[in-house]
Design brief:
Strands 1, 2, 3, 4, 5 and 6 form a 6-stranded mixed sheet that branches. The protein is α+β, with helices and mostly antiparallel strands and 415 residues long. Helix content is 64%, strand content 9%. The chain is built from 21 helices and 6 strands. It has helices at 3-11, 18-29, 40-46, 68-75, 82-96, 121-137, 158-177, 187-193, 197-214, 218-231, 240-262, 267-273, 275-280, 285-308, 313-326, 334-341, 345-356, 360-377, 382-388, 394-405, 409-414; strands at 55-65, 103-108, 111-118, 145-151, 155-156, 184-186. The protein has 3 domains: 1-50, no CATH class; 51-193, 2-Layer Sandwich (Alpha-Beta Plaits), CATH 3.30.70; 198-414, Arc Repressor Mutant, subunit A.
């Protein structure tokens, strides 16, 4: 760590331990898009981080308390949280693997990371698999937990570590969508699970949707989701339970990504949204797809409002909540929202566009269309649906569909 960094910490009244400094430097090796400073090797050595070679492997361990009370009793704690669980497991692993000099275990938020290093690719790979087995063996010793480990490829140099971090992240995203994956898996083993080229194509498309969602490209991610349904998921529509099962896995992945992006369990928000209940209540293919788009949009709203972190983002989220609760009102518009929230209409429009990337009118129409799709999928007439979602008649709704969907509700109903 640089002298000026230590000075800044000291000026703030913070005096990091040697372990905290080591973790700080190790996390710095994994920062995506950040260049490694020229003096980094020297700083690592000063912190007693000495890598014996130039070949690196990465293990990420996720710890889930399936029975928190058993875990608390087993380790003698009085309370449980994901953060405490990760800290306790990290400390336990550091003690267990103390004799291994080419291994560093540390924690990033609730993730436990392990960097290994060796002189050759083969030696590093053997060490990686040995350490992973030791990690997983702890599951037999501690009550109430489940361990999931992911191993990257073994790559050369510090730059390889950033690619390895991407690999283990891909494994866990894949695992969220495909729960049948073994509890311990390497990146190459995951690729081997893909099987036929058709399966590989589906998984690549699923990852493309997830990546666009996580980087805030909502319209792109929604278009990719639509293509995924049209080109891949249509075959699951009979029996419908297969499609619901696949979409439930995808919702699990999206919710996990949203929690990671917001750094919050989002318990109250998800209780209101109830994505799985809404999905399972769907009665046909069109309704499942519409519910998925609806859930997708609301998760995007949630992450966007949390991540902006700027003045106005919080009350803009309240504006969205009001629209979702009152979209059936045919008189809902910018002026009415401005009256409700005590804002100037022009100011409200500008702030909404800046925070969300779309106009208030576009948001109202897109939300109504998503609700309309669900009702059309349930078999309601177009006239009834138009009235239910806030349009004056079926023709007005049809024009909105044509503008935002490129098709008409009639074609959707007959398709």
């Amino acid at each position: 760590m640089k002298t000026e960094e230590l000075t800044q910490w000291a000026n703030a009244g913070l005096f990091p331990s040697a372990g905290a400094i080591r973790d700080h430097l190790l996390i710095g090796l994994l920062q995506e898009g950040a260049e490694i400073p020229l003096d980094y090797p020297e700083r690592l050595q000063q912190a007693e981080i000495r890598f014996p070679g130039n070949w690196f492997g990465l293990i990420e361990l996720k710890v889930i308390a399936v029975d928190p009370y058993a875990y608390i009793r087993g380790l003698g704690h009085t309370a449980y949280s994901d953060a405490h669980l990760a800290v306790n497991m990290s400390e336990l692993l550091q003690q267990r693997l103390l004799d291994c000099r080419s291994l560093f275990v540390f924690k990033i938020q609730s993730e436990i990371m392990c960097i290994l290093c060796g002189e050759t690719r083969e030696d590093t790979a053997r060490l990686q698999h040995s350490v992973c087995r030791q990690m997983m063996a702890l599951e037999q010793e501690i009550d109430g937990i489940r361990l999931l480990a992911a191993c990257s490829d073994v790559l050369e140099g510090y730059d390889g570590l950033k690619e390895e971090k991407q690999q283990v992240r891909q494994i866990f995203e894949y695992r969220a969508l495909h729960p049948g994956l073994p509890r311990t898996v390497s990146f190459q083993e995951m690729l081997g699970q893909l099987g036929h080229e058709e399966d590989r194509t589906v998984i690549e498309k699923e990852h493309a949707v997830m990546s666009a969602f996580k980087t805030g490209h909502y319209r792109q991610s929604l278009e990719l989701l639509g293509a995924l349904f049209d080109e891949e998921y249509l075959s699951f529509s009979d029996p419908l339970i297969l499609l619901k099962h696949k979409c439930a896995q995808y919702i699990f992945g999206l919710v996990s990504a949203a929690r990671e992006m917001c750094r919050d369990p989002l318990t109250s928000e998800l209780d209101r949204l109830q994505p799985e209940r809404r999905l399972m209540a769907a009665t046909n293919y069109a309704e499942v797809r519409a519910q998925m788009e609806h859930i997708f949009g609301q998760l995007n709203d949630l992450t966007l409002s949390r991540q902006k972190g700027e003045a106005g983002a919080e009350w803009i989220a309240s504006v969205k909540d009001y629209i979702r609760e009152n979209y059936t009102d045919p008189d809902l518009n910018v002026n009415k929202l401005a009256d409700v929230f005590g804002r100037n209409p022009s100011y409200l429009s500008r702030r909404f566009l800046r925070v969300t990337g779309q106009s208030i009118l576009d948001y109202i129409h897109r939300y109504r269309i998503q609700e309309a799709k669900i009702r059309i999928g349930q078999g309601s007439s177009l006239a009834a649906v138009a009235e239910q979602v806030g349009y004056s008649n079926a023709l007005t709704m049809s024009r909105a569909f044509k503008k935002y969907e490129g098709t008409t509700p009639g074609k959707l109903k007959n398709g």
